[in-house]
Amino acid sequence: MRSGLKILSDIPGKGMTIERQHVYRIKLKMWLNKGEPVRWKRAWGLIDRAILEDNGETLITDLRIDRENLINGIFYGIAGMCIGGSRTLKISPHLAFGKRGIPDTVPENAVIIAEISFLEERKFA
Prior knowledge:
Blueprint: E1 5-11, E2 23-32, E3 51-53, E4 58-64, H1 72-77, E5 86-91, E6 112-121
Antiparallel strand pairs: 1-5, 2-4, 2-6, 3-4, 5-6
């Protein structure tokens, strides 16, 4: 595991192993280090398929697994996961949103706790 990344919990899935450059339906929740939830103002990912639940705390979306769509901590932290699985990661700022943060959402240099679940692989015709 990369420096600055720690697996806090890992529930293995029973489906296929997650592959880079493939699109999956995911469920994502994030918290700041002291437990405050990250509330998204807008859904992101493949926008026409993205929804927010729990007052913006839970994102459900279709997302291509690549470094363009994921922060580095999640990109590297999902290695070896399978469909149906869920993993909680503690991500240092340099692998999260860094010095920039996200205005009005994530402060600069924030440690992030992220819980990601892979619901299904999405195939598009």
